[in-house]
What we know:
About 0% of the residues lie in helices and about 50% in strands. It is an all-beta fold.
Amino acid sequence: AQLVESGGGLVQAGGSLSLSCVASGFVFSDYAMGWIRQGPGKEREFVAAINWDGKLTKYSDSVKGRSTISRDNTRKTVFLRLNNLKPDGTGVYYCVAQFVYAEFPNPPPGGYWGRGIQVTVSP
């Protein structure tokens, strides 16, 4: 199984960014998908998750109202749109696949993780 993130980079505070994650090697539509980020010197932090058919979503309080997670099962891709970014949004963003949606925001070992992609928000 493989998850490959793209779309990261440098953005100014207040700006927007769109992340994508393409899956392969497993039945994408069977899995809930999520994004986890890790800021410099911080613990990993849940950002957002979406269930297998896209009808259920959940967000951390830190991004709620400023972010949108979505998925396209025909393209085996999950997206994260980040708006009005703040400097504390800086970190490595990981795409995560979990068989059980309810396991987000704290996915246990056993799911699939991408290698992560850097997002840097400048003040």
